[in-house]
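User: quick one
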Amino acid sequence: MSANMFSDKPAVTDDEAAKITRVEELAYELSVGEVMTSKVFSLRPNQTMREALDEFKQHRISGAPVEVDGKLLGILSIEDMIRSLRDGRIDLTVADYMTADVITARKEDPVIEALKLFVKSRVGRLPVLDSDDKLVGILTKSDITNGLLKALQNDYEAEELIRYRASHLFEDIVSDRSTLTLRYNVKRNDFSHGGAASNNIKKALLRLGATPQIARRCGIAVYEAEMNLIIHTNHGGVLRVEIEPDRITMEAYDDGPGIPDISLAMQPGYSTAPQEIREKGFGAGMGLVNIKSCVDEMNLASSLDRGTNLYMVMHLDKTRHFS
Amino acid sequence: MMVITGHSQGKAMKISEILEISQGSLLTPYANPDIEILGGFAGDLMSDVLASIQPESVLITGLSNPQVIRTALIADVRVVIFARGKQPAQETIKLAIEEKLPVISSDLGLYEISGRLLQHGLPSFEKRMLHAFDSD
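Assistant: Done. Structure below.
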């Protein structure tokens, strides 16, 4: 992404944005060397065109680089072959008919550079040279297509593997009771990170194979709890999530100042948040109500000298389990 | 004049259509213009958003802080529109890019964007709060 991402103008125009895809990212990430065909058939300059024709037929190819000891001298294409046939001079050498002024690609270059060359020069294949100018391979557009598809497949498999490992966590570990505990310290007034812990919790649940509905409900509940810690506590507090195969237990606790009237706090729309908090989009008086409607069990305990403890449970039964 | 009363009569919309109808411009890359948006919600209070909004929706808001993005992620919102030409803070855009959440800036106001989208058939996802999770 460009350096002017944060300028006044949009980072990219709509048209540009629509065109940026993972494939294009890969075109910058992959090198020519990774996608080229490296076992390359080549011709010697002193071979006759008749021999070249036989080689083309035998290898079912329509062009080949011409080299001596790895040094690229030219490229012979099917068009050159046709010229020699038309001239009736098929016994002349490859050196007589090859194109000596060859457009080449570098092994270390990103694939995007080679794509640009293909577009600009309209050639069908590019000989690939290493840093010592030795011929190391040949690149066609279908090499690029295959390389990109393979890279996309690898991306997909890597992600699947991570998901698989995470979602089989509980099966792999044998114990009478396995739990995974996530703990986040939430600071008072830390709006710039507000919701970050909850988003991490939601992502972890998805990784572990929770259904999107479960992850969303838990996410909303801990998000509201996280914002309450940021807005309504003396020093912030702790979010603690305990994940078990059959349930998710979420807790938010702090050391004060405590809630004077819990039943009032539970009323939809009741809020003690000051105006500046409301301007940030919080303090709607819906947080605890939202939590209650998201989780299966909720218990709110608070005392004015010890602070508040919010306890939330989501049961994972047969229909709502880790997949 | 078409009257939209609920989900069933509305139609899903692509991000490209939403961009056009809201006269907005995209502030983030990675937007797949073919992503389908099923409904919309407009509001500035994040708890109201969480109480009401359904997944795969557009969130139209007058706020522009990073919490909007985090709220949208929690609620499985697929695209956010910042209304009244608000330029969100750098960290807001940065977060949206990191999370691959498309965000749009539109010069139109909340009411006008909502009205236009509704008129073009995108259903409202605004619900009475107590029933917000019935269909989840």
